[in-house]
Write a structure and sequence with these properties.
Distance between the termini: 50 Å
EC number: 6.3.2.9
Subcellular location: Cytoplasm
Number of strands: 20
Pathway: Cell wall biogenesis; peptidoglycan biosynthesis
Enzyme class: ligase
Structural class: alpha/beta
Number of domains: 3
Helix content: 25-40%
Function: Cell wall formation. Catalyzes the addition of glutamate to the nucleotide precursor UDP-N-acetylmuramoyl-L-alanine (UMA).
Length: 450
Amino acid sequence: MKNITAYKNKKILVLGLAKSGASSASLLHELGAIVTVNDRKPFSENPEAQTLLEKGIKVICGEHPKDLLDEGFELIVKNPGIPYRNELIQDAMKRGIPVITEVELAYQISEARFIGITGTNGKTTTTTLIFEMLNQGNKNPLIAGNIGTVASDVARIATEKNIIVTELSSFQLMGIVHFRPRIAVITNIYEAHLDFHGSREQYINAKKNILKNQTKTDFAILNFDQEEGRQIAKEAKGTVIPFSKEKYLPEGASLKDGFIYFQGEKVIDYQKVVLPGKHNLENILASVASAKLMGVANEHIEQVLTTFRGVEHRLQFVKEINGRVFYNDSKATNTLATKSALSAFNRPIILLAGGLDRGNDFDDLIPSLKNVKALITFGQTKEKLVQTGKKAGIEKIFIVDNVQEAVPLSYALSENGDVILLSPACASWDQYKSFEVRGDIFMGAVHKLV
C-alpha cells in the first residue's frame, strides 16, 4: 500500500457505511485524516459504527443532520448507493466540496494495476472469468469490488506484482477523479437504474467514466455489436479493443468458423466452452481479450473456459431432480438479463419472476417467453407480470407470496425435461435484502424437494 500524505489532517466526511464506508473510514483514519462518519442506521443497530467509534473515529448515526456540513469538511466519501439528489450531497456540491466513492481511494493507495469491468449485464461473470484466466496464467490477480472484497481492503494488501480485477457499478464510477485502469471493459449498455441516474444519457456518462483517465498505453475493451459501444470507442483515449459475437473482427475478439479468435489468433474451439447461453459469449470474448492483453497463454484460457460453469446467482445450475433442471438466476434484476437467461434454453421453461416495482412494464419480455409453459410470479410486480404472461399466451400463470412458495409449485407443474428457472427481472428489495439472499432461499427450497 502506498503511504500517501494527501489526506493527513484533512476533515473528511464518510457518508453511509456498509462495507465500503467502514473500509473508507478506517483507511482515512490510518492515513491521518480527521474522519466523521454519518449513517442513517441507529448506533445501537450499527456494528460498523460501533467498531469505528472504538478506533477513535467520530460517528453520527440515526439521521443526516442538515447542518452537518457546517463543520467544514474538505471531502466527502459517499456510499455508492446514496443518490446525488440526496440533500446533503446537493448541499456539498453547492459548497464546492468534492464527492468521491471508495474505489477512488483504493486506486490512490494501490501499488497494483487495475482491470475495471462495468456494463449493464455480465459484469460479475466477466470479472470472474478474467480473474480465473489470470490466476491460471500465474499473473497474481486479486478480485475486488461488487463481486467480493471492498476494493480499498484489497488495495491495502496488493503489491506491484498483483493485478486487481474489479467489478464496478455506474454508482461507483460517478465518484472517481484519478482512477485509471490498465484495462477497462464495458460489457454492454442497456437502459437501467434510471431511478438513480435520471436519464439514459446520464447512465451512459457514468459508465464512460471508467475510460476518462486512460491514455494510449491503456486498453478499452468495448462491445462493437452495440451502437453505444461503437460511439464510446470514438471518445476513448485508450487503445480500443473491440469484441463482437456477430461478426469477425481481426483487430479484437470475435467468433469465426466456430473458433474464438483474438487479433487473428485462434484461441479455442467454441464448442469446448461449457458456460451456457449465447449472451455469455459477450462475457467470454471480453475476458479472452483482457487475458491475452495481460499475456495469458491460450492453454490457460482454455483450462478456464472448459471448466467454468458460471457464478453464483447468475444462471447457476442448482440441481436435477427426476429430469427437471433447476437454475438460479437471481442476479437477473432487469428484463434484459431475464431475456438472456430465457434464450439459453431450447426446452420447456417454468419461469419464476417478480420483485421490486420500479415503474416499468415487462412487455419487452414477450418475444422471449415462447418456451415458457408456466409463469409463477411474486413480489410488487406480480400483477404486471401476470398481464405480460397473458399477452404472451402463457396458459398456466400463478401468483404466490414468495420464492419459497414458488419452488414446490414449479416442481408440481413440471415434467421430465423441463427447466425451472428463477430469473426475476426485478430487484429483490421489496422482499429480500439482496439478490443473493433471494437466490439462496430459492436454492434451499430446491434442495428440500427430495
